[in-house]
Amino acid sequence: MPRRELVQKILALKAERGAVILAHNYQPPEIQDVADRLGDSLDLSRFSASASERVIVFCGVHFMAETAAILAPEKTVLLPDPSAGCPMADMMSAEALGALKQKHPDAVVVTYVNSTAEVKAETDVCCTSANAVAVVRSVPAGRPVIFGPDKYLGGWVKKQTDRRMIVWNGWCPTHQKIFPEQIEQLRKIHLDAVVMVHPEVNPAVAEIADVVLGTGGMLRYVKESAATTFIVGTEIGMVYRLKKKFPDRQFVAASKHALCPNMKKITLEKVVSALERLEPAITVAPDVAGRARAAIQRMVEIG
Ligand code: SF4
Question: Whole-model pTM?
Answer without folding.
Answer: 0.95
